Amino acid sequence: MRSWLRYELQLFSHMAAYKLSLNDGVSIWLRALFNRPLPPFYLRNGMVWHHGQHDDPVCLFREIYIENFYEPLKAPPGATVLDIGANIGAVTMFWTHERPDLQFHAYEPNPQAYESLRQNVTFNALSERVTIHPEAIGGKRGRLDLWTDVPTVLSTAYGDSTEGGGKKQAL
Q: What is the pLDDT of residues 43-60, one digit of tens each?
């Protein structure tokens, strides 16, 4: 009985977070709950998250707005911030809203996620503050074999296979 109540309370708290943070939060929460196609996320802070077929905006929303993985930046005024593995730019957009005095460089090697990142930076008029790079950051220069055609939040250069199929692409 307690586990059922805990589950119900978690569902309610997640739905409340969607409603508080998104203009169409209840609709998106229900679509996510029932595995329906998701529209762009219109956040109440004015940002819009566009996403592609392999992107997982629900996972990113949960990390940022429900589980609070990302703390406010403690960078000095006017600093430049690097977002390495920027995915669709959700964290970069969160930080640009919180810290309008900062400049950002967002790096994303996955071509599918990079296209959503590019679209989000352009649509949200962030091009003067966010420079995007279709590349990875590593210890040395070279080519990278990256898993693609998998959820972009799971895209990695590591491992021999992924659970969702996909393919390794040389970048």
A: 999 999 999 998 999 999
Please state whether the predicted TM-score (pTM) of the whole model is above 0.85: yes
Cβ atoms of 131 and 106 within 8 Å: the answer is yes
Residue pair 54/150 in contact (Cβ under 8 Å)? The answer is yes
CA 94, 95, 99 angle in degrees (round to 5)? Answer: 130
DSSP notation for the chain: -HHHHHHHHHHHHHHHHHHHHBTTHHHHHHHHHTTPPP--EEBTTS-EE---TT--HHHHHIIIIIS--SPPP-PPTT-EEEEET-TTSHHHHHHHHH-TT-EEEEE---HHHHHHHHHHHHHTT-TTTEEEESS---SS-S--EEEESS-GGG--S-SS-BTTB-EEEE-
For residue range 147-156, list pLDDT tens digits in order: 777 677 767 6
